[in-house]
Amino acid sequence: MSERPYVIDEMISAKSIAARIEELCKEITAEYRDTDKLIVVGLLRGSFVFIADLVRELNLPVEVDFLEASSYGNAMESSREVRIFKDLRGEIEGRDVLVVEDIVDTGHTLTHVLHLLKARNPRKIKTIALLDKPSRREADIAADWIGFSIPDEFVVGYGIDYAQRNRNLPFIGKVRFVEGS
Ligand code: 5GP
Ligand code: MG
Ligand code: MG
């Protein structure tokens, strides 16, 4: 747990997130109109709020599964080492898979997860990330759909934590450390 006092400044409002999800879901619904094989895979834990809003805005039959991969501990620093803590429950062979990520930062997590899932022979695999930090990219990867492109700031809320807190904020905010208090 962090000992340094901080405040959270709102960056993307709950209303803007909802509006963007509505737009994205129109595109995604069109993309998968002809399949009954869509499985939406949420990367835990950061995507849990996003995936909940996303699937309810999709006008399609969908299955939902989760995978937990992490390159972050409780720190604010990324690491190139990606570990799988929880694998999918179901098979994805021959399925259309949509991987849902909270933030693409260095890109190592998504690269690793895609490599792992492609080896299971899905019919098609695509990715969506709520947030993208292109200036931080190290791996050559881009999500197929992106909610918002943001600068290199440490953000929280809408499922995303700082030291396991703040996931329940309805908006995306940036962490700002304050002296004293
Ligand atoms: P990558 O492997 O792309 O560097 O890392 C992606 C993961 O790092 C994200 O899914 C997220 O869990 C974490 N991450 C990246 N940027 C932030 C951030 O600003 N705030 C928080 N809480 N996690 C972040
Ligand atoms: Mg994540
Ligand atoms: Mg985290």
From TrEMBL:
SUPFAM superfamilies: PRTase-like. The keyword S-adenosyl-L-methionine does not apply. GO terms for molecular function: guanine phosphoribosyltransferase activity; hypoxanthine phosphoribosyltransferase activity; magnesium ion binding; nucleotide binding. CDD domains: PRTases_typeI. Its cofactor is Mg(2+). One of its GO terms (biological process) is GMP salvage. Coiled coil: none annotated. Residues 16-162 form the Phosphoribosyltransferase domain. It catalyses: GMP + diphosphate = guanine + 5-phospho-alpha-D-ribose 1-diphosphate; IMP + diphosphate = hypoxanthine + 5-phospho-alpha-D-ribose 1-diphosphate. It holds the Pfam family Pribosyltran. This is Hypoxanthine phosphoribosyltransferase. The lineage of its organism: Bacteria, Pseudomonadati, Pseudomonadota, Alphaproteobacteria, Rhodobacterales.
